[in-house]
Amino acid sequence: MAMSETTSIQPSRNMRLKGVGIALIGAALMSLDPVFIRFSGVEELETSFLFGLFTAISMAVVIQLKDKRGLLRVLRESGWPLLAAGILMLGSASGLVFAIKNTSVANTFLIFSTTPAIAAVFSWILLREKVSRQTLFAIAGVFAGIAVVVSGSTGTSSWFGDMLAVFAVSCLALMMTLLRKFPGVSRMGAVGVGGFLLAVTMFFFTEPSAFSLNTWLIMGAMGLLTAPFGRVLSMVATRYATATEVSMTLMLETVLAPIWAFIFFTEVLGANSLAGGAIILVTIVAYTLHLTREEG
Fold first, then answer.
1. Which among 3, 155, 163, 175 could bridge 88 via Cys, Cβ 3.0 to 4.6 Å?
2. Is residue 1 part of a domain?
3. pTM (two decimals)
């Protein structure tokens, strides 16, 4: 049974607030991705394979245990939008891994910060969603912070890694917009299908038997826990808030990921990165508080 299109796109205020809160948790979990990827000890193809494998396993198990319909029925009832979301997840996840391996963590997540602008375009074209004035102000504040950061780091960025990040963020924004249009699609199913496609694709370019135990454990922690559930929460958030609002909130990753990079890899942030990150964080907090006041 294929999913029908939603008839009402704009969420109520209380639903928007709930969506923003869910997205914040998802962003915090996903910001840990570069830590696991850098510690994996293997190259991009191997990291992508393990990421996809463990993600597919974790989502399949959770769906089978938590959803009364069972895994196969969930996949069947979600229809073609699930497959489309899975393909976009494949592009986003693989692009993220390759970007982190080829450019700085800060640059990767700064480029991911452009998600709201791309999502706004997709939402306007595909869903005809209107963007509120408050959301526009929030996006403007976030991009002001990004401009401050980029002004101090453009000379050291890797062009190849940056382009991979652009590809990944485009897939992510389109996936979020697709799930906004089809809210009945299983979010866990979409992440699981994406992980499965990623594992199958990368399997032909890797030798799993050569991986060390340390690599299996590190990528298992990422693929079974933080990465898939962070992405599920980011998708669940689109049920309650617009794709643009969710994308803007997920930019908390841009602040947290470089902090983890400094703590674990001594990847030092310059004054511009610190100042820009502060602007982004303040904007996200202010926007969330605005939704809270609207609800109160």
1. 175
2. no
3. 0.74
